Amino acid sequence: MKYEDIWEQHESEILTYIKSKINQHADARDILQEVALKLHIAILQNSSIKNPRSWLYQVTRHTVADYYRKQYRENQLSEYVPFKSQENTCICDLTAFVVKNYLPRKYAEAVYLSDLERRPQKEVASMLGISRTAAKSRIQRGRTKFKSLVEECLDLSFSPNGQIIDYQLKRECELPEELLKEMQRINLTL
Q1: Residue 162 gets which letter from DSSP?
Q2: Could you tell me which of 159, 73, 160, 183 has the C-alpha nearest to residue 124?
Q3: Both 67 and 87 in a single domain?
Q4: 50, 96 Cβ separation under 8 angstroms
Q5: What CATH number should be reported for the domain holding residue 114?
Q6: Cβ–Cβ < 8 Å for 173, 152
């Protein structure tokens, strides 16, 4: 069967399915395009597609899952990083400083590679010479430790969808001198 025949027959139902799973119309179109590309590549590689409709749905389900995994990864660390920044300030600079200087090394390396350099867990595991399960565990524990560090000195206010909308420095908390210097260096104020 040819790509054009398969795609013409199933495109609209695949798009409807994607829209039922994704609220953003533009993202749904991007996913549809990605599925079309995967179909085209499979046909060029002479892959055996016995039932094009079920193959397309399976690929679409996986592509939607990948979309949500990517969204989750991008939002995972940002929900723990409160800030009030001046123009041209990148909170990632302070996050990297805190991760490197205040987390135990084995967690700092995993969190830094995963969340700040945005490397996949498989790659993090390879770089650290550990199993993927161990890397995932270190990343999760590191994120938890990072969150605890942040919450030790800050009262956080969250929006209904879980994003940090405001924070206040706790009265009993004194920030370390090197952290204050780093905040001044990147022009970040409390």
Answers
A1: S
A2: 73
A3: no
A4: no
A5: 1.10.10.10
A6: yes
Taking the alpha carbons of 56, 57, 60, 61 in that order, is the dihedral positive or negative? Answer: negative
Residues 132-145 as b or e (16 or more Cβ within 10 Å = b): eeebbebbebbbeb
Tens of pLDDT along the chain (190 residues) come to 688 889 999 999 999 999 998 888 889 999 999 999 999 998 888 888 889 999 999 999 999 888 887 776 666 555 444 444 444 445 556 778 888 888 899 999 999 899 888 899 999 999 999 999 999 999 999 999 988 888 888 777 777 776 666 667 777 777 788 877 877 777 766 5
Q: Is the pTM of this model over 0.85?
A: no
Same domain, 57 and 100: no
Amino acid (one-letter) located at 91: I
Within-domain flag for 190: no
8, 37: one domain = yes
- CATH number (domain holding residue 46): 1.10.1740
The residues pairing with 168 across neighbouring beta strands, listed in sequence order, are: 155
Contact of 170 with 163, CB cutoff 8 Å: no
Structural domain of 54: 3-75
Q: Do 27 and 53 fall into the same domain?
A: yes
Q: Say yes or no: 147 and 81 in one domain.
A: yes
Biggest CA–CA distance in the chain, Å, is 70
CB 188 within 8 A of CB 89: yes
